[in-house]
Amino acid sequence: KIYRLVQKVAGTDTSVLISGESGTGKELVARAIHFNGPRRDRPFVAVNCGAIPENLMESELFGHVRGAFTGAVSDHEGLFKQADGGSIFLDEVGELPLHLQVKLLRVLQEKAFTPVGGSKQIKVDVRVISASNRDLRKEMEKGRFREDLFYRLNVVQMTLPPLRNRKDDIPALTSFFIQKFARTLDKQVEEISSEALMCLMNYSYPGNIRELENVIEHAVAVTNKNILTEEDLPPHIKGISITEEFKLFERTAPGGAEAFFNKGMSLDEELATHEKCLLLGALKRSNGVQKKAAQLLGINYRSFRHRLEKYGLLEMKNHQLEEEAAE
Length: 327
Fold this sequence. Notes:
The protein is of the alpha/beta class. The chain folds into three domains: about 1-160, P-loop containing nucleotide triphosphate hydrolases (Rossmann fold, 3-Layer(aba) Sandwich); about 165-235, Helicase, Ruva Protein, domain 3; about 240-325, Arc Repressor Mutant, subunit A. It contains 16 helices and nine strands.
């Protein structure tokens, strides 16, 4: 959905507001909008509004003239001027103080601004893409963000879900980051083992895509093989130890561990039930695309089809998947 929306808005000059948790890839989306549009050959300027001290923010964004304040020994054109003809990405736009929100609103309305200490307006042609990990509507209700600016920025809104809610993207992102860091670190790393990929799929990623990127950079840096394995991953990604898994099972087994073992169970039947549930779950999440489902489970396509055949699931259609999963 996000990819389709990027394609639709890239060819326009419409203001876009991207919301989502830190690390969800807001700047990547902003870059995709810019570099797939008519401004692709013009500057793309990214600025983190939360990283600039408040007393320097106006000068950084809009520039200053010589003598505007102590230390201003020469003219400084500012980031909006640098982005002229292209796009500016205002990350964490909710961090802008109210007086600068007024100035940003004027830029959006009049496509002009006055540098700090200056008297002449400077005209600019800049597409503004902004982002925030805050709920700007709530900030607006509390009087910390201007309503008129919000509606100017929020012509098209994109909400990026956290990585834990879109785990289907992990294999493709992992492949992209492996290629990226193999190139930058000059390593002959080509792929990741199915076991290591399952570790990545099972992790919750509080740091979102940025954390996954760091994990892959770590793995590529430390490996001495051409395929990433579990031992290349940071300890916190590998999951819990077998002792911890046993303790977790004792606490969470249906009806308690004693009831679980006293019901006259068959290990083969229990494992078959769990395997069938995982197969159905993967098929459902991949909309019935078997190759994608096999990738989600970290097994090869032939093995996946063999398991489907084993449980009579090979020819199952999407509506049947829904019914089976519900049961």
